[in-house]
């Protein structure tokens, strides 16, 4: 096997690995993004499609991605090169790693802006800034927080510095400890807020908004968003889980860890949604308020409940920490790649990539004020374009390639060394999902969204499927022969 120049560390235990992976998965995607895209896309039907994507597509890809990391034993670019070499496949598979490294940096560039905003809200709450706040005041507060690029840029910079400090020192020392106390804390506060939500009088409406499915309202774009978000929220498709998988020892169970990740991630997203929509309906707010939703709803709740400033400060602190454990995992594929190439130290690699990403992030900062209506792609400003490009295109593409490699290219005997299921049924579900379901789902949704009209949809779909079947057939022949 090709060797990398730097030795690869290892998680100290199964539990630590699970915590780190859950820490990566649970973040702004669950608490900030999921509720607002569910609101934008009409709730119910969207949520059902999202859940289906999580369990039918997300879980198998998560297992495959971690396993490919463990088999490749390096950063995602090198790991895919190793995996390709070991299975007599083309070196072009490194493209999967490169796609991920770039997507990670692009996501991080806007992630730190939103997380920075949560940081600002933490300080606001500490100063009692939400006291007796009503819906109007909450909206005004949000508008004033994002109105100045200098202020927003300041928080973006601060949060980026936190991220870089942790990554530069090597992930585990500081992070393990933080995550151990953070996850239970976050769950507890969410439970308190859930209790509050049941008392708003609109909890029932919130439940029915989230779960009553009216499929006639569902658009293809919503399906693409739901699928993209399944990738985003589970941190799959861009090599984060591959990078973390490289540190997984032979005795650890990838399947067990993956089930934990999926369950925790889903639980937290649903709780956040129920809480936020209860507040939305109780205050006659708009569920489709977009990226500001979290920031325009929760301050109302904290402003009204007894001890609200304590809960409010704690909540935003936990959001910041959840975001931090995800942010470092967004940077990890790129940093481990640059470091393992051997020319830069970890600290240098972190600084270089951090500065680059920070700069790109300024585009998102401006998207909330001066450049709000400067459209790059369709009716999307810089922030929305980056979000679309990564979540809706790059991550599903990465996931598709992971599925194809794991299902067809990876030789059976080699795969069995890394990944084994004791349960036959699960094995079959896994194989079928990766072989057929995932590739077709991604292709179909892509074709519908990228294509202009039926003719092009059909052309893209047919070409995609023929190419796919051709590849699968070749791998099949090679393995049989
Ligand atoms: N899963 C993280 C979240 O939900 C974001 C993320 C995406 C982190 C991809 C790493 C890789 O916030």
TrEMBL record:
CDD domains: SLC6sbd_Tyt1-Like. It is a multi-pass membrane protein. Its main location: membrane. It is found in: Membrane. SUPFAM superfamilies: SNF-like. GO terms for cellular component: membrane. It holds the Pfam family SNF. GO terms for molecular function: symporter activity. InterPro entries: Na/ntran_symport, SNS_sf, YocR/YhdH-like. It comes from the Bacteria. Keywords: Membrane, Symport, Transmembrane, Transmembrane helix, Transport. The keyword Transmembrane helix applies. The keyword Transport applies. The chain crosses the membrane at residues 12-32, 44-63, 101-123, 150-171, 178-198, 218-247, 259-285, 305-331, 351-371, 383-408, 429-448, 454-473. Belongs to the sodium:neurotransmitter symporter (SNF) (TC 2.A.22) family. This is Transporter. It comes from Thiomicrospira cyclica (strain DSM 14477 / JCM 11371 / ALM1) (Thioalkalimicrobium cyclicum).
């Amino acid at each position: 096997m090709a060797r990398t120049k730097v030795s690869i560390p290892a998680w100290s235990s199964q539990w630590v690995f699970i915590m780190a992976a859950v820490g990566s998965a649970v973040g702004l995607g669950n608490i900030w993004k999921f509720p607002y895209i569910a609101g934008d896309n009409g709730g119910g039907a969207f949520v059902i499609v999202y859940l289906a994507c999580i369990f039918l597509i997300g879980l198998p890809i998560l297992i495959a991605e971690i396993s490919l990391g463990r088999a490749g034993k390096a950063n995602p670019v090198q790991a895919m090169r190793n995996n390709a070499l070991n299975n007599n496949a083309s070196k072009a598979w490194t493209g999967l790693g490169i796609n991920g490294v770039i997507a990670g940096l692009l996501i991080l560039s806007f992630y730190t802006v939103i997380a920075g905003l949560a940081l600002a809200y933490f300080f606001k709450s500490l100063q009692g800034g939400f006291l007796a706040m009503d819906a109007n005041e909450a909206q005004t507060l949000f508008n004033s927080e994002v109105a100045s690029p200098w202020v927003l840029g300041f928080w973006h910079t601060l949060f980026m510095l936190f991220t870089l400090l942790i990554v530069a020192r090597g992930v585990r020392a500081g992070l393990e400890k933080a995550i151990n106390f953070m996850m239970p804390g976050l769950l507890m506060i969410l439970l308190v807020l859930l209790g509050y939500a049941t008392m708003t009088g609109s909890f029932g409406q919130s439940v029915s908004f989230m779960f009553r499915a009216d499929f006639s309202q569902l658009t293809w774009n919503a399906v693409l968003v739901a699928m993209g978000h399944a990738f985003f929220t589970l941190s799959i498709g861009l090599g984060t889980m591959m990078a973390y998988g490289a540190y997984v020892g032979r005795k650890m169970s990838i399947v067990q860890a993956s089930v934990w990740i999926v369950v925790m991630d889903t639980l937290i997203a649903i709780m956040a949604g129920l809480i936020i929509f209860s507040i939305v309906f109780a205050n006659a707010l708009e569920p489709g308020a977009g990226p500001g939703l979290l920031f325009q709803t929760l301050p109302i709740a904290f402003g009204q409940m007894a001890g609200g400033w304590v809960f409010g400060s704690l909540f935003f602190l936990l959001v910041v920490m959840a975001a931090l454990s995800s942010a470092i995992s967004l940077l990890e594929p790129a940093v481990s790649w640059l470091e393992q190439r051997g020319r830069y130290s970890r600290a240098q690699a972190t600084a270089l990539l951090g500065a680059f990403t920070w700069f790109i992030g300024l585009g998102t900062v401006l998207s909330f004020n001066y450049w709000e209506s400067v459209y790059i792609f369709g009716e999307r400003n810089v922030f929305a374009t980056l979000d679309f490009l990564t979540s809706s295109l790059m991550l599903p593409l990465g996931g598709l390639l992971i599925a194809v490699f794991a299902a067809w290219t990876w030789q059976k005997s080699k795969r069995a060394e890394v990944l084994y299921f004791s349960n036959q049924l699960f094995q079959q579900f896994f194989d079928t999902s990766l072989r057929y379901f995932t590739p077709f789902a991604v292709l179909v949704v892509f074709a519908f969204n990228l294509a202009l009209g039926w003719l092009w949809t059909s052309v893209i779909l047919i070409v995609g499927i023929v190419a796919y079947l051709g590849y699968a057939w070749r791998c099949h022949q090679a393995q049989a022969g």
